[in-house]
Each structure stands twice: as structure tokens, then as C-alpha cells.
Amino acid sequence: MTATGLSSFDATVQKTNEILHAIADANGWPREPHNRPYDAMRTVLHAVRDRLTVNESAHVAAQLPVLVRGVFYEDWVPARVPIKMHRDDLLDRVTAELPFEVETGIEPLVTSVLQALRRFVSPGEWADIAATMPKDLVPLLPV
Length: 143
Hints:
Layout: H1 7-27, H2 35-51, H3 54-63, H4 66-73, H5 87-97, H6 106-118, H7 123-132
Helix pairs in contact: 1-2, 1-6, 2-5, 2-6
């Protein structure tokens, strides 16, 4: 028997927990509770999502685990994107929207979140994301 009664739900919960654990581990946070890694994932996802075009956002979201895809689309207004952001703009947005302070710095946090998500996005799609970003944002994207 599965935890939720549906194997596809169990799979997305497991994949989401892997992402949250990777974010927690990279930032020296405890794995439980998931509050900090979840808030970090959500905030970074929304900032990056809003920098992408509608089509690019849809392509990225399609590759994410179902539960993370829901977080990705939460509060999204396609008519308001892309928002032109450079590196400092994106980092400032993440800083402003996080409900906690990051002792190790925002840039390493953003990179750790993107690294945790990276394994679910194909290399071609990841290259497309990098191609649509301003040059000063590309270094935040793990290879």
C-alpha cells in the first residue's frame, strides 16, 4: 500500500522531499521541518518564473515534479511576464520575499535551489533558460 493510496502522488511527494532535502543540506539547515527549504524553493521559483517568457515557463514547469509544478504556478499572472530583472534585481526580490534572513547570503541560496531543481530539467531546457536570461544572471544557473 502506498502512503497516499496513489503511486503517482507518492512519487511526486518523494521527489519534492528530495528537492527540499537538497536545499536544506546545501544551506546547513535541518531537513525537518521543511519550512525554510520550502520557502526558499517557492521564492526562487517565482522570481525565476517571472523572468521567463510564458512559453519558457510552461516548458520548465512541464518537467518539474507535479507538486513542485503547483508551487511554480501559484499566484502566476502570465500577462505580467516577463519581468525584466538583472542579477541584483532578482537577488533583491528573493531577499525581500523570503520570510527569514539568510546567514550565508542570497546568491548561494538561489544557486542551491536551482541546483536542487536542475536534476528534473533536461539539459536542452536548461540551456534554453540560460539563453533567455541576462548575461549577469547566467552564473546563478548551475551547469
